[in-house]
Please model this.
Amino acid sequence: MPQEKSKFELLREKSILSILDGDVDFGILEIDGADSEIKISMPYLSGPTLCDISNRFGLPVTYGWNGGAQSRWAYLDDLFAHCIQNKRESDLLAFLFSKSQFVDKLKGQKPEVIEYAYAEIVKAVIAQINGILYFGGNELVQVGKVFVIRKRGTTVKIDAPSVKAIDRSYITDLSDRAMKDVIDGNYDSAITKSRTLLEEVFCYVIEKKGEEPSESGDIGKLYNQVKQLYNMHQSKDMDKRINGLLSGLEKILSAIAEMRNKGSDSHGVGAKRINIADHHARLFVNSAMTMADFVLAVSEKATSSS
Model:
């Protein structure tokens, strides 16, 4: 018996993809009766940014800087197809609509304006998507961080999402894929996967404590959250060699975050772009794996002793 197609296939229509990648706007947001100069649209997703998001969701993509790059909507379409196949459609939408994605769009505004604009833009964009889905009798619905497509007029029970399980096999698998990128000469993609590995492990151990990870997408801030929750601060009562290791780990994290910002495949070629060598990429992949494994071990120890 053939498997029923996911309703999320409906979002692969080009007009909807063009909304989600920020190509289409729906006018200027009005605040207190005046134009705010804030466009009612999703954040603009460049080709390199879409490749970065694809790698984050386990679809290895490298942007064709020297030609061969796809249209932006095509990158997003491939990503939707991948997420549908892996049943991560809601996760992808939750990421695209998350407040952290609106940082560049809303930075410089007052906090109350950011909160209002973010809520209004998300509501307006979902309404526009539902205008396209309307004639098929469907609608996109958001409940918290969960997204579903349902028949209009029906109710859908949404189970509370469980924390994504991350273990050593997950760390090894993603590290192996990053190392394969190194072997294939895709150093930028390897750096992106190294950063993704750390971010996902940090988020996982934060959620295990019942806390919400920082929405900033800043792995430095996420690591500070981890340190606070698991009391990982250096201590004068601790062996100086252990303190030295902790200090070294933080330097590794800082270097990976910096390399990811200046040298990865999610950013354009510019004055600050770094040429990455094979041995540098290997060092970053292995360092990220070591740190991810350490943080996971700290989390597991805290769980077993509680």
